[in-house]
Amino acid sequence: MRFDLPSDGIPTAWFNALPRLPEPLQPPLHPATREPVGPDDLAPLFPMALIEQEVSTAPWVDVPGEVLDILRLWRPTPLVRAERLERELGTPARIYFKDESVSPAGSHKPNTAVAQAFYNKAEGTARLTTETGAGQWGASLAFAAAQYGLECKVYMVRTSYESKPYRRVLMETWGAECVPSPVDDPDSPGSLGLAISDAVADAAGRDDTHYSLGSVLNHVLLHQTVIGLEAREQLALAGEERPDVVIGSCGGGSNLGGIALPFLEDEGVRLLAVEPTSCATLTTGRFDYDYGDTAGLTPLLPMYTLGHDFMPPSIHAGGLRYHGDSPIVSALVRSGRMEAVAAPQTKVFEAAVLFARTQGKVPAPETAHAIRAAVDEALAAKEAGEERVILFNYSGHGFLDLAAYDAYNRGELVDE
Ligand SMILES: *Cc1c(COP(=O)(O)O)cnc(C)c1O
User: Fold this and answer.
1) Whose CA is nearest to atom 7 of ligand 1?
2) Distance 366 CA to ligand 1 centre (A)
3) Domain boundaries of the chain, sorted by first residue
4) Phi-psi region of 65 (alpha: psi -120 to 50; beta: other; left: phi over 0)
5) For the CA of 224, the nearest atom of ligand 1
6) What is the atom index within ligand 1 of the atom nearest the CA of 220?
7) Beta bridge partners of 300
8) CB distance 226 to 14 below 8 Å
9) What is the pLDDT of residues 212-266, one digit of tens each?
10) Does the pLDDT at position 193 exceed 80?
11) CA of 271 to the centre of ligand 1 (A)
């Protein structure tokens, strides 16, 4: 029921979606001039290697050996068939999940944190700043920064800073500094957009510092494709020709891109994004150029957006509370190659608890969005009497989200 690759089975090249999109992406625009941004505009924030990856049209990009050395601490990750869940649902579908919760930080996010820290170190950066929502990304970058001896400062959305102290403790244990955001308004609950503004302003103001983003950008999705590349091999080990549907929860789009993009060119494979109804960017947002942050410091990106000043409600899936979406994911949804659905948090937790009681693992609330959709797909297969193959990304564990489970178990969790 578990399909493992050998320890030397980590992909040695990332899958680049850019040259394989239905149409080339529209370029990011400068926030002041609204002209396409060039490498020099981005150089105060990112190392040149990442700026190049952001626009590269090479079909494959080699993973540096120094990155592989660290990914080897937990990769390749397992692919597991959720047979006990299938039996509970009485579905003829076969459900597989790729378990990214086994990383040191407990989610998929270290896959890109390690690569970003490596390229920064290689180009002489001494210090990194970033934002974090629920704390998964901040913890992942703190871990990666420690591996390369970089300083790290994390601006954490204030509601999460106050309600989820354990990820701050993780960040501090890995040697990073973590402060609540927005820094200049202690009464604001904060948002990812505001925290990005804080982190970008810090990096732009110091020569020794670069900024690091945990999702959305092309290079982040590129680094996450190790997930889908491994899963392809593992599905073959399981005797499956191809999945019928590949599912990922979608905040900024990185774990979804990571598992789904390597299946982009496979005909008949549906790709499915799952987002929270309270922050439903792909299903209710408009496609337009918008800022990545609230203050308007970042380039304008072509994406589905709820508006850069959107203040999402404080749902438990903090990692999915972002006003925008990856331009790659947005382009795929717009072209019809990828589908998107939204789920309310009570239905999401219902699926999370079903998964915990059958498969044993307690998922992150973000991950539970993908589980909700996988369960719905399995029930649709039952209805149709079809043996469909469902693959979803188990993006992280929920051991630091037990307060949310407590609320659900007491019947106190409501939909916003
Ligand atoms: C951050 C996070 C997400 C959402 O972010 P994406 O960039 O859309 O992948 C999903 N699951 C977990 C566990 C996360 O930490």
Assistant:
1) 254
2) 6
3) 67-107+225-409
4) alpha
5) 9
6) 7
7) 29, 291
8) yes
9) 999 999 999 999 999 999 999 999 999 999 999 999 999 999 999 999 999 999 9
10) yes
11) 17
- Dihedral of the alpha carbons of 142, 144, 145, 148, in degrees to the nearest 10: 160
| 78 touches ligand 1 (CB under 6 Å) | no
Structure tokens at 306: 């709820």
Higher pLDDT, 315 or 391: 391
Q: Whose CA is nearest to atom 10 of ligand 1?
A: 366
Which one of 196, 249, 321 would you pick to mutate in the ligand 1 pocket, going by the greatest count of ligand atoms within 8 A of its CB? Answer: 249
Question: Quick check: helix, strand or coil at residue 390?
Answer: strand
The answer to whether residue 317 scores a pLDDT higher than 80 is: no
Q: Between 3.40.50.1100, 2.60.40.1080, 3.40.50.300, 1.20.120.450, what CATH number should domain 67-107+225-409 receive?
A: 3.40.50.1100
Return phi, psi of residue 254, to 5°.
-80, -40
* pLDDT at residue 192, rounded to an integer: 87
Pocket lining: 329 vs ligand 1, CB cutoff 6 Å: no
Buried b (16+ CB within 10 A) or exposed e, 203-233: beeeeebbbbbbbbbbbbbbbbbbbbbbbbe
Query: In 60-163, which residue ranges form alpha helices assigned H by DSSP?
Result: 65-71, 83-89, 110-122, 136-148, 158-163
Determine the distance separating the centroid of ligand 1 and the alpha carbon of 347, expressed in angstroms.
Answer: 18
Round to whole Å and give the CA distance between 401 and 337. 33
C-alpha of residue 318 to centroid of ligand 1, in Å: 9
Q: By the 8 A CB rule, do 290 and 301 touch? A: yes
Query: Ligand 1 within 6 A of 367 CB?
Result: yes
User: Does the beta carbon of 136 lie inside 6 Å of ligand 1?
Assistant: yes
Task: Look at residue 73 in the predicted model and tell me its pLDDT.
Answer: 98
- Cα(22) to ligand 1 centroid in Å equals 25
Q: What tokens appear for 257 in the block?
A: 């891109």
Enter the tokens of residue 101: 């919760």
